[in-house]
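Lecture notes, structural biology module. Today: joint structure prediction for complexes of two components.
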Amino acid sequence: MLWKLLTSSMKKMWKDYIVLLFGLTVSIAIFYMFQTLAQNKAFLEANALIGSIVFVFHVGTFILAFVTIFYIFYATSFILSLRQKELGMYMTLGAKKGKVTQMMFFETLLIGFISLVIGLIVGVGLAEVIAGLLMKQLGFNGGGFEAFYSSSLITTVIFYAILFLLTAAVNAVKVASKSVLDLVRASQQADPVVTKGWKIFFGTLFSIILIAIGYYAMINMGTFMQVGVIVAAITVTLGTYFFFMALLPFIVKRLKSIRSLNEKGLNAFTFSQLQFRISQLTKVLGTVTMLIALGLGAMAAGLSFYHNIAIQTSMIYANDVAVYEPTEEQLAEMDSLEFLERNNYSYKVTDEGVYFLKDDLLNNPPLIQKFTGDIDQLTETARVDDPLDQAEYSDTATNEEQMISDDWSTALRNELLATFRIFGDRTLYIVNQEKFGQIESEVASVMVGRVENFLDHEDTLAAIDEHNKEIASGYTGSTPDMIGSKYDNYTSLKALANGTIFMGLFLGIAFLMMMASVLMFKLLSSASADTHRYQMLRKIGVRRSKLSASIYKELFLVFLFPSLLGFVHVIVGMEMFSIILIEPFTKIWIPVTIFLVIYVSYYLLTVQMYKRIVLPKEK
Amino acid sequence: MTKPVVHVDHVEKIFGKKSENSFKALDGVSFDIYPGEFVGIMGPSGAGKTTLLNVVSTLDNATSGKIEIAGKDITMMKQNELADFRSSELGFIFQDFNLLETLTIYENIALPLSLQGVSSRKIKPLVHQVAEKLGIKAILAKYPVAVSGGQKQRAAAARALVHEPAIILADEPTGALDSKNARSLMETLEHLNSHHEVSIMLVTHDPLSASYCERILFIQDGALYKEIHRLDDQAEFHQQILNVLAEFTSLDRS
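The predicted structure, tokenised, for the full assembly:
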């Protein structure tokens, strides 16, 4: 009989149970998705630039597990809060305590089991889709990644089975330890927020000081190094919690005290809901902020490493293209590249040496990247202006005057690509017209050019590299693996970085999804306690559309504050990378967009589910 | 002759589908309430008091018949119109106060005005004025949880009054109060009625509360059973009410 009562009232409260199931499912799916990567050691080691990547993922697993444990304990105690009044009633009617306790235990377990099954299915799908999308976007085909990974499956099942058993036991013990009266009287009373002035003042002060110290440490990472990282991690985290405990309630309070704003329409209600909500959610909001910062930071850092590759290669090469002995066809194709500058240089090749014509070099001196010695701008583009007064220069000359100068050497090797890859162990010469004419060999030429953005012409550049390799095999008898061109360098660096970035993004996305779902669940689980307020407002004549607008507004603000603060943390935090990255903020819009898409989806979903719970049904 | 503020004309309310298990909660009820009247609705449990109040307060719609409030036919209105109508023409006082516990008493009272877009400059004097009338000026800054039941109900009454609705609908307003607070609240309502011409429709089962009314409509099985008027003496009226209620009890026994 009790079982029948139980299932029937579960049906009655299906809205609350859906929220619960949803929350658990998301948690399990994300945990599993993360594990598919974290446990695939072979994949991690084969595809990462960073040697300690396995360790990074262990830390990630730890953080995720930590968050999950709290999440699950909270979520399952939510079952209890839904049921205790009813259980108490059964007990007053004579149901035995043992029976009721047993019921609670199995109910928690049952819900855990259902969500585990759904969660794993969703998790496999999620891993498949996200990994597929990322790999496609990055042009990275990391072999060995499996969305359906049995060892992760087992870990997830064991982890959650233990968690659910534990929480089921906790719930049962809680029921057992309460008296009938406790249970019957249990109701969610919304205590109004009374914040003490001095608490707010000191909290706010602390919050600002701590965050300021953290930011200062991060901006001046070059001076503080490791100590700075530790100091920033501690102060920013603490400051964030203080922010939500003191500063934010203070801001909302100020907002409320603007009478013309507060007394407009439903604003008074919206703000007070917000105030009430924030006081309930301080810890969650703080945690969400920090994890947004971490997740977004991981993605932003990963991606800026990626985009820095192009910038890095541009720091070595002033020109984008060098074509040896271009064919008529290639020359025609070159026109489509819209060169900013292009020059041809004549040369002759013998068995011992490569001879570049001095007049060509002097008439159109090539651009090179010169090292400046300045930390902020390592190189600058400049034209070679070293004089070439002698009749002949070489890189093996014994007297100083006939040595090819550093800048000309850079020009020949980096811009004209005249290296061993093309010419083998031949000596490089720069000779005047007279000597050039005496060399018994065919005149050939190399075309060097500079385009607006070399990434716009990846296919052409790849074809040119292949062409140059063929020329090289003509000179040396073997085809080199690399030709040493700018594009060549770019692709090999990219291949190295891709795996790392893939993992960074994967990690970041998993964290963001987890965070947003924690916030969503927290909001929805308290929604049924708000129902009577909306019903009352409806009674005294508030249009449904206004109630709906109030929900949009309130939840928007709840979602906004952690994202804003988390975002600022990331922007300042990225300054840390300025000591290793050239432009840490390049294309920061990509992780920001990913973040916004995830976050906004959760916001809209939360609003819809919240509305379903609290708004009275319309006939 | 002045027009009635509430005009109820042959109203029927049937719950359930027409063919099976249908239950007629209101069976052709008709009555008028004129401006400045203080009318009580009484009757045994299940007689249809709450249904009548819900229908008049536009929270539920009548199956047939016509209801006009302040000259407007509410039976033809759409959901949003009804919401606007409630917010401008009706004032509610409920048994369980229904104050928003997240708002201060001041904000609770100000809410109907804010909803109608009254500027905050005008709101303050209006709230203070009505709080003065109800003797709750001292607790305006407090939250509902920090004040007594009687004060809560006064705050609820202030909220019902502040936007000067056509009529106040009170549903067992003394139901959750002790006798001292109940009496004091009824005295206040009577005072509002006699000195400020506020029209009130009160649903109650408490004879003492009802004895503050000028006129009482008794309903039984969804239809009007009897109507009594207060002449002068409240104690006498109280007795009269008890007599009518006794008739119900004897009806039940027979």
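Point to remember: Chain A touches chain B at residues 189-192, 194, 259-260, 262-269, 272-273, 275-276, 533, 536-546, 618-619 (CB under 8 Å).
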